[in-house]
Every structure is written in structure tokens, then in C-alpha cells.
Amino acid sequence: MVRLYTDQLNIGYGERLIVKNLSVEIPDNQITTIIGANGCGKSTLLKAATRIISHQSGSIVLDGEHIAKEHTKILARKMAILPQAPESASGLTVGELVSYGRFPYQTGFGRLSKKDYEVIDWALEVTGTIDFKLRPVDALSGGQRQRVWIAMALAQETEIIFLDEPTTYLDLAHQLEVLELLQKLNREQERTIVMVLHDLNQAARFADYIIALKNGEIVKAGTCEEVINHDVLKKVFHIDAEIGRDPRTNKPMCVTYNLLKGDNQNEQTTNSVPALHLISS
């Protein structure tokens, strides 16, 4: 049985629907990536799935229960989210920030137990940030800070982790560092990872399952082979893409593309645009 799925989900702000009649299953113990143009509803879907925002109709079901009815602390023990722009951690040390991940397990006066400290150190070790434990978060580089935020999510000890554009503002090396860490968590600890990515080749390289959205609706959901292809990318991004093979993973990759003009998508620009943010290890 799939643990997490949506059924005829509608999400909006006021009278404007952003996500429309969306039904999708999130594969357990896999990496799922959500792709689509700006404003298509990727972040909105993540926020609703983690109950940061409410949905207007339909349902989001986790372990057979509607998340809208789940107690906050119980839900926080099942899923964690790293938003696109985490709140400022100004004045906090790395250890203090990661300790916030233990909130769902605290009782009484909220004092940390021996178990809490053990989990905090474990999360720091796994993310390679244990040496930063006493350093101010503000003193870290962008890549280091992102790993610390992931450590905080890990400290929640959830089996499902949502990340909204975890590689934003990072250089190529740090992007790869973060994505390889998430892949390691998935493979070694069987964490279910759900993340929004803009880079198509990163999505193809690291995802087991991809959901392509356009205007709040699913164009295609499936394996990398099923989603990263000419027809789907044309519908989702309005581009004419040349698809090749990543020589290191043998997964599909966008080698180059033309922008399409007009509503009929028949005209093409004369110059091809090289694929951006290609990464290798």
C-alpha cells in the first residue's frame, strides 16, 4: 500500500486555483522530483502536502489518514519539510538549530533528553556538519548551511522528507553535494524523498519518479524515461528538446533545446539554447 497520496486535490489562494483536481501517489522509499515552469504549483503542492497551507477540496492521505485531521506532533514525526527559503537562523549555533528538529518529541518544559542529544549528533554526523556544531549558522557557507537545515529535518526522525528547491543559490559543486547526500539517505536509510527541482538533468539523474506539472495539473508522472522526453518537455516548458543519454548514469538528459513561439508551438527560434547546470562527478 502506498503511504502518501492525493485524491482530486484542489489548492488555491482566494478564488484562484493553483493546483487542480490532482491525484497522485508518492512511491515509498524512493526519490520523487516535481518539475514544471515557475508558478505551475510545485511549491504549493509541497506546502499543502505538509499542511503548511490548507487545501480547498479533495484529500491528502498519509498512512490511511487525512492529514487535515492528524495531530500536529504526530504528523511532524512522519514528515519533515525544508522550505525554499528557510527562516533566518541568526544568532543560533548549528547545534541549536538542529535541536529544533526534536520539537515533535518534546514534552513538559521542552527539555532535551539524552535520546534527543544522541539523535542531534547523529544528524550532524550523517550530513557531515558535526564539526560545525558550536559555530554560528551565519558563519557557514551556503552549501554548509543547506546541509545543516537538512540535518534539522533528519533530527525529526521522519521517514518522508520534502525539500523545495534544495539547490537554489548553490554553486554546482554544492548542488551535487546536497543531492548526493539526499540520494545516500534514500539508499542507505530508505527515506522517501520528495523535492522540487528546476534543473531537468539533476531531476533525471537523482530521481526514481518524476511528476511534471503545468498550470496546476499533471502532464505526466512516471519514471525518468517516461517524463524526460521530447513530447512531455514540449507540453510542460514550451521547448523543443533534444534528449540524449547521460554517459555516467545512462539516464535521459536534455542536451539542448529551442524555445517555441506562438500558441501552436510550431514555430521555433533559430538558435538552440544549451542545457544549463549540467553536473558531473
Give a summary of the structure in a few sentences.
It contains 9 helices and 14 strands.
The rounded distance between the terminal residues' Cα atoms is 36 Å
Question: Order of strands across the widest beta sheet?
Answer: 6-7-8-3-9-10
Largest sheet: 6 strands, mixed
> Quick check: average pLDDT?
89
Strand content range: 25-35%
- Secondary structural class: alpha/beta
Shape: globular
Tell me the radius of gyration.
Answer: 20 Å
Could you spell the SSE succession in H and E letters? EEEHEEHEHHHEHEHEEHHEEEE
Approximately how much helix is present in the residues? Answer: 25-40%
Please characterize this protein's 3D structure:
This protein is an alpha/beta fold and 281 residues long. It is built from 9 helices and 14 strands. The strands form 3 sheets. Strands 6-7-8-3-9-10 form a 6-stranded mixed sheet, with helices on both faces. Helix 5 runs parallel beside helix 6. The model is unreliable at 264-281 (pLDDT under 50).
